[in-house]
Amino acid sequence: MKKESSAIPLDVRAFAQSAGQRSASDPLQKYERLLQDVGEEAAEVPVEWSAQGELRPVTGGPGQIWLHLQAHTRLPMTCQRCLADVEVALEVDRSYRFVADEATAEAEDDEAEEDVLALDPEFDLAALIEDELLMEMPLVPVHDVCPSEVKFEAVDEGFDKAMADKPKPFAALAKLRGGGLE
């Protein structure tokens, strides 16, 4: 069975020149790497996004190609403090300036306040959306305030009792040798 591509191809130059706008609400299943982090049960969670292109005039040269991306979703995750379900909101609101090639993008990216990307005739908007949402995911998802009290203890009486009741293998060996442990 051939898998259908989830790419959203975009001619960024033409999109910017026409001041294009696109938006959609896609199911999370379209974004495989994002779905792997939350599980298949979240496949129908909506990812809403919009993109606007812009050609900004530059004195003495061709206009600059810009893309503004907004995306948001709410992912079901597990709180690492209380281990209950937590819904994590991811928000992206970012602008990108496009340049002729990868070398120029690399040279200008460190100095620029905006993200600088290379023009690519096969630019994939879905990959950019997914990359940005992945970068917004928390390393450790937690509730602001957990719904139930979380006990933070280093001692567990049940564990100590189980260890006391557990047979001691070296004591059994000592009995086999004819001696006892003191």
What features would you highlight for this structure?
182 residues; alpha+beta; 5-stranded mixed sheet; 5 strands; 27% helix; 31% strand; elongated
Structure commentary:
By secondary structure, the protein is α+β, with helices and mostly antiparallel strands. The protein has one domain (12-148). Helices cover 27% and strands 31% of the residues. It is built from six helices and five strands; from the N terminus they run H-E-H-E-E-E-H-E-H-H-H. The chain has a five-stranded mixed β-sheet with strand order 1-2-3-4-5. The longest helix has 12 residues, at 125-136. The radius of gyration is 27 Å and the shape is elongated. The model has no long low-confidence stretch (mean pLDDT 88).
How would you summarize what this structure contains?
By secondary structure, the chain is of the alpha+beta class.
Task: State the helical fraction.
Answer: 25-40%
Average pLDDT number? 88
| Radius of gyration computed on alpha carbons | 27 Å
Strand percentage lies at: 25-35%
Contiguous uncertain segments of 5+ residues:
none
Count of alpha and pi helical runs: 6
Identify the overall geometry. elongated
Q: What count of domains describes the coordinates?
A: 1
DSSP strand count:
5
Series of secondary-structure elements, N-terminal to C-terminal = HEHEEEHEHHH
Question: Which structural class do the helices and strands define?
Answer: alpha+beta
- What spatial order of strands do you see in the largest sheet? 1-2-3-4-5
Measured between the Cα atoms of the first and last residue, the distance is 70 Å
The major β-sheet equals: 5 strands, mixed
